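Fold it.
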Amino acid sequence: MAVQRESMAYDVVIVGGGPAGLSAAIRLKQLAATDGGEVSVCILEKGSEIGAHILSGAVIDPIALNELIPDWKQQGAPVDTPVVEDRFYFLTEKSGIRLPNFMMPPLMSNRGAYIVSLGNLCRWLATVAEALGVEIYPGFPAADLVYGERGEVKGVVTGDLGVARDGHHKDTFTPGMELHGKYTLFAEGARGSLSKRLCERYALHHGRDVQKFGIGLKDLWELAPEKHRRGLAMHTMGWPLSNETGGGSFMYHWGERFCSIGFVVHLNYKNPYLSPFDEFQRLKEHPRIRSFLEGGKRIGYGARALTEGGFQSVPKLSFLGGALIGCAAGFMNVPRIKGSHNAMKSGMLAAEAAFAALSQGREGDALESYERAYRRSHIYADLKKVRNVKPLWSMLGTALGVPLGAFDMWTNQLFGLSFLGTLGHGKPDYATLRKARNKDRIAYAKPDGAISFDKLSSVFLSNTNHEEDQPIHLKLTDPTLPLRVNLPEYAEPAQRYCPAGVYEIVGEGGDMRFQINAQNCVHCKTCDIKDPSQNITWVTPEGGGGPNYSNM
C-alpha cells in the first residue's frame, strides 16, 4: 500500500544548509523586504543541526560575504582570523623546498582572506536567515523528488523515519513529508544524491566535460601555545604522493590555539592500493608538519569529497522547476582550494533569478537568467583563469604539470587568455584505476597514536552516529560484484579509498564476504565516485545520521 504523505507548500524549497543554500535563503528574504512583499522559504538539512556535516579547510575569500551581509563584522560573524602569512612548499620525503611567494600567480595569494570554521560560519548564517523568516529543518534529509505534470521538479520528499534494516515499518514509523516549491534549489554539496539524479534526468552534463573529484581529509588540532602561529596559511604538494598522483596539504592556524590540517587527494589516482587516509597519516609525520603538531592534541576528524572539474565541468545550472547551486554544480577553484565564496555567490544569483520569476507570477519553469548571470559573475571569471591547472596536473604529473599550470595562470592573469585554450579532463575518476597486478602495493606504517592515527579512532572524533536498525544507505547494484570483480581485478579498493573503515573483506576462501559498516560512514561520498564498477550508490540515511562536526 502506498504511503500517505502530508505536504507543505513554499515559494522556494532549498535542499542543503551549507553556504550556498543559506546564502540563497538570505538573499530571497532580503529581496522580498526591499520589494515590500513576502516570499516563503524553507531549508532542509540532513545533519542534526546546521553545520553538523560541514567540512572545509577553510580559508575564505570574503567577496560574497561582503556583498550578502556588508556589516558582517558588526553583526558578529565568526570570521576573525585574517591570513597574515602565506607559505608554499614542495615536499620531499625528509625535507621541503619553500616556493617564493613572488613566483605564485596573484590569485594564489590569501591576502585579504580569513581562516574560519565553515561549520561555525554556517551556524551564524542560519541565525541571520531565521531572523529574516526562513524556516530551517535540520535532521530532515531530502530523500526523493516530486515531479509535476510537465516533468518539472515540484519539490522533494523527506526521508521516512522508523524503517527497520529489513525494510519493515517499526512502531515508530513516521512517513516523510512532501515539500512543494514553485522553485527548488539544490545545495547538496559534492555528489549530492538528488543532484546526481537530476543531472541524469535532465542531461545537465550534456556538452560539458566530465566532473572530477578529490577527497579531502581533515584533522582539527589544539596546538601547544609556542607552536601556534595565528593567521598562518601553509600549503604543500609533493611527498607523500607520487608524481602521478595529484593532491597536497593545507595547514591553517586560527583562533587561540586551533590548527586545521588537511590533505587532498585527486580521485583520478591510478594505484588501487593507495589509501588517502594513510597518505594523510604519512604526511603528518613529515618534519615540516610534525614540528607544529608535537605537543598538541587532535580534537577533530572528518572527510568529504570535493568537486574539482571546474570551469569546463560546470553542468547546465537550471532545469524545469529548479537549479543547482554551490558544490552541487561544482564551483571550487582547485589551485586555491577555495569554493565557499563561489558557492555563496551562486546561491545569491539563483535567489535573484527565482525572486524575479516569482515576481512575474511564474513557477516551475527553468531559471535561465541564473545561467546568464553566472556567466557574467566573478565565479565564471575565477574558474576560467584556472581551467587548465587540473587537466595539466592529471596529464603530466606534479613535477611538470604544476609548473605549466602556474604558467597558464600567469598568462590568464596578464593577458586574459591561455595559449592552451581549454583542455579536457579525460576519463571519469572511477575509470582511472589500473588493475592490481599492474601496480605495486604500498606499505603503510602503523600509526603512533600521537601524530598519526587509525581509522576507527578518527571516526570516533567525527561524532558519527547512525540508528543501527535502519536500511543500509550504501546501496550495491550487484551484491556479488565486490568479490566477483573488484577483488580479483582491483584488490577491492573500497577497503582503502573509504576514509572511515566502512568497507571490509572478511573471512577466507568460501566464507569470504564484503561487509558494509554503514554506521561508520562520514558521508564523504567517495565510494559513489571512485568505485571502479560504479556499483555503490550513496543515499540519505535516516534523518540526523552521520557526523556531528564541531569547529570544522
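The domain at 81-116+211-307 is CATH 3.30.9.90 (D-Amino Acid Oxidase; Chain A, domain 2).
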